[in-house]
Design goal:
The chain is an alpha+beta fold and about 150 residues long. It has helices at about 15-25, 60-70, 85-90, 125-140; strands at about 50, 75-80, 95-100, 120-125, 140-145. The model is unreliable at about 1-10 (pLDDT under 50).
């Protein structure tokens, strides 16, 4: 974490509706819903939307591991290209969409978001995930296909 990035007091940051509108798909399962229920401890089903807790160093790893094993969905992650987890999991995605401008997450009910310190991207695995990112590319950013 850079010195200008201040750790959040909570991992509860919600995705704004315009992201879902741009993806133009319907998800079957969210393992990280508001006021979560332990998404790592349950079986995932169908087409998954995952905005995991970014948390501390490597806190995202178990979420990405389970997401890749599931193989059907879209994940929202910080674009930390030099992080070991990034270099392990992003090349395994079928498609990546770098979101621009930065997403202003919703920190809680009735609270207005401010601009985040970091950018984000969407990772797609599976055909439906790839279609969702194709749907969103003109509204949300630039597509990249990992090798």
């Amino acid at each position: 974490m850079a010195r200008h990035e201040t750790p959040a007091r909570t991992d509860e940051w919600y995705t704004p509706q315009y992201i879902f509108d741009a993806l133009a798909v319907e998800f079957d399962f969210d393992p990280c819903p508001p006021f979560g229920f332990g998404g790592l401890d349950v079986e995932w089903c169908g087409f998954v939307w995952m905005n995991p807790p970014f948390g501390g160093r490597n806190g995202i790893v178990p979420w990405l591991r389970k997401f890749m094993q599931h193989g059907n969905g879209v994940a929202l992650v910080p674009d930390r290209t030099s992080a070991p987890w990034w270099q392990e999991f992003v090349p395994r995605a079928d498609l990546v969409l770098f979101v621009s401008p930065k997403i202003k997450f919703i920190p809680g009910p009735g609270v207005i978001a401010s601009s985040p310190a970091q950018g984000t991207c969407l990772l797609a695995v599976g055909e439906r995930g790839q279609q969702a990112l194709q749907n969103a590319k003109d509204r949300l950013g630039k597509l990249f296909r990992p090798c």
